[in-house]
Every structure is written in structure tokens, then in C-alpha cells.
């Protein structure tokens, strides 16, 4: 539509020093004559577009002109831009780039050097390490299903490596730690569930729609963040100096005490779940479980199973 093109041209002019009619024509796939008419329409709307002739000529907006950004300070606009750049690789380059153009249009050209300088001081990247093109495709499909309130079906692999087919009412998508998760109401379990994106396969959006339930993903996220006190245990660990960096990456400073001999005494509350055993085994011979005894026994048993796996007959 013409109004969309006029808005897009305005955003480009606000974010670029100068752009030629030929470049605008190629970008929007219209004739040069159409671009001339569009620029004239933008001028008539009160936005001062200046035309320059010559080899380096083109269109640009007067330096001091910017769209009214009302109560947003330069620092607040910078925070928005940094946040948008942080999710660009995940939700799609084209979608976020267009939004960045619109936000950038709120900054006067005379302020852009300051914003660029501030942007180079902080980078936020929430994209999980293993994310790639496949993740983007899955996220696009799931976001469409959430927006259109359509059921999704997929094959799911649980943390215990048990496979099942699920049909879910998708509520929303959340990124946590090292991965993306789908929050939704599972028709198989007849309850709300969390599904890790990396374990979801053969995702299909069904034609059947559903009525969205009252619970919000913020409320669900808060509920799932709470741990049942009965499932928590008090861990006491002794770690060797050569894994100090890994220990301090995971545990909080107040949970770690440096011993006179250089070892680390760790006291922390953790959920008594299978993944904990794998995490502790990951430290190899550089960590010993002191308490509780049943966790130490599990680690010893699993370590012996590893030894047996590599033993020759």
C-alpha cells in the first residue's frame, strides 16, 4: 500500500544521511517517477525532505528534524535499540530491522553519533548458543500458532528420553538460560506444561482453534519458578582448585568458601532431581559430595557404571 511505502521511506530518510531516488526505487520495486511523487507527498505532509543533485546527490531530511518521541530520553531510546538488537538473530532479521528503523527515526540526526557511541558500550545477546536457522523456523511457526490461537502437535522427548506425541494449546514462548521453551496447555496431560524447543520435533500447526485460558505466561512462569520445599536438599561439596572457575560460574559467592588448602567448600540448596547427578558428575574427580549420603551413593554408583562401560572383558 502507498501509505506503508511512504512511512517506510520516511523511516529510511530519518535513519540515513542521504539516499538516492534510484536506491529507493530498487528497494521498493517501483518506478523513479513513483518515488518522486512519494517524496513530494512526504514534503506536503510537513516532513522537510531536501533534494541534492549530482553524483552524490539524493534525498535527506533536515538535520534537526525528528519525529516527536514525547517523554523518551536518549538513554531510554538507546536501551530499546540495544534490546531489539539482542533478539534480532532469534526472531528474524527482517522483522527487527524494520522495527529498529522506526525506533531510530525518533533520534535526531545530530544525536545519532552519541547513540552509536553508547550502543558500542553494551551488547545484549539472549540467543542461546546452539540456536540456528532451525530454531528461527520453529519460533516463527509457534509464534504464529500463539497469535492465531491454533493447536499445535509435535513429538516430544522428555528429560528422561521418553518419547510421546502431544497436542497443545500454545500460550507463549520464553527464553531461559540456554534454551527456548513453549508454555501451553497439554491436552494429553490435561494441565499446563513447559516444553523445551530443542526436544520438540515434527511441529505442526493444526487448523483447529481454541479459546485461550485465563492464565498468563507471566503467572505460569512465576508458579513454575517456585520449588516444592520437600524436593530440595542441602548439598555439601568439596571441589578442587582447578574447577574453581566452573564452581563460581554456577554457585553464588555466599555458597562458596575458599579453604586454607585451596579447595572450595560449597554449601547450597538444590532440587533432588536426576539432572543434578549429571551436573555433579561433570566435575569428574575434581568434586566430592560430602552430603547428603544418598546423593553421594548415586554419584558413586553412576561413576562405577562409567568405569564398567570402559572396562575390557
UniProtKB/TrEMBL annotation:
Whether Transcription counts among this entry's keywords is: yes
What the entry lists under PROSITE patterns is as follows: HTH_DEOR_2, WYL
Q: Where is the HTH deoR-type domain?
A: 2-57
Q: Which domain of life is it from?
A: Bacteria
Keywords on this record? DNA-binding, Transcription, Transcription regulation
Molecular function in Gene Ontology: DNA binding; DNA-binding transcription factor activity
Q: Would I find Transcription regulation among this entry's keywords?
A: yes
Mind telling me what this protein is named? Answer: DNA-binding transcriptional regulator
Amino acid at each position: 500500500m502507498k501509505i506503508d511505502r511512504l512511512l517506510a521511506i520516511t523511516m529510511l530518510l530519518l535513519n540515513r544521511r542521504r539516499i538516492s531516488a534510484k536506491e529507493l526505487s530498487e528497494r521498493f520495486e517501483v518506478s523513479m517517477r513513483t518515488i518522486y511523487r512519494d517524496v513530494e507527498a512526504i514534503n506536503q505532509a510537513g516532513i522537510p525532505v531536501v533534494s541534492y543533485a549530482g553524483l552524490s546527490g539524493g534525498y535527506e531530511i533536515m538535520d534537526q528534524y525528528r519525529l516527536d518521541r514525547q517523554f523518551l530520553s536518549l538513554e531510554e531510546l538507546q536501551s530499546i535499540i540495544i534490546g531489539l538488537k539482542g533478539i534480532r538473530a532469534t526472531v528474524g532479521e527482517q522483522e527487527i530491522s524494520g522495527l529498529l528503523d522506526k525506533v531510530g527515526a525518533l533520534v535526531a540526526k545530530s544525536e545519532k553519533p552519541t547513540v552509536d557511541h553508547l550502543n558500542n558500550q553494551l551488547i545484549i545477546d539472549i540467543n542461546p548458543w546452539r540456536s540456528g536457522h532451525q530454531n528461527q523456523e520453529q519460533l516463527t511457526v509457534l509464534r504464529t500458532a500463539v497469535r492465531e490461537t491454533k493447536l499445535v502437535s509435535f513429538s516430544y522427548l522428555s528429560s528422561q528420553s521418553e518419547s510421546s506425541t502431544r497436542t497443545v494449546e500454545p500460550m507463549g514462548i520464553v527464553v531461559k538460560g540456554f534454551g527456548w521453551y513453549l508454555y501451553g496447555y497439554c491436552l494429553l496431560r490435561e494441565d499446563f506444561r513447559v516444553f523445551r524447543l530443542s526436544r520438540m520435533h515434527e511441529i505442526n500447526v493444526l487448523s483447529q482453534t481454541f479459546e485461550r485460558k485465563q492464565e498468563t505466561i507471566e503467572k505460569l512462569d512465576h508458579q513454575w519458578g517456585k520449588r516444592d520445599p520437600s524436593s530440595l536438599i542441602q548439598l555439601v561439596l568439596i571441589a578442587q582448585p582447578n574447577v574453581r572457575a566452573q564452581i563460581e560460574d554456577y554457585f553464588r559467592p555466599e555458597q562458596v568458601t575458599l579453604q586454607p588448602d585451596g579447595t572450595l567448600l560449597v554449601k547450597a540448596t538444590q532440587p533432588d532431581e536426576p539432572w543434578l547427578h549429571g551436573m555433579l558428575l561433570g566435575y569428574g574427580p575434581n568434586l566430592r559430595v560430602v552430603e547428603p549420603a544418598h546423593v553421594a551413593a548415586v554419584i558413586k554408583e553412576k561413576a562405577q557404571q562409567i568405569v564398567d562401560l570402559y572396562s575390557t572383558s
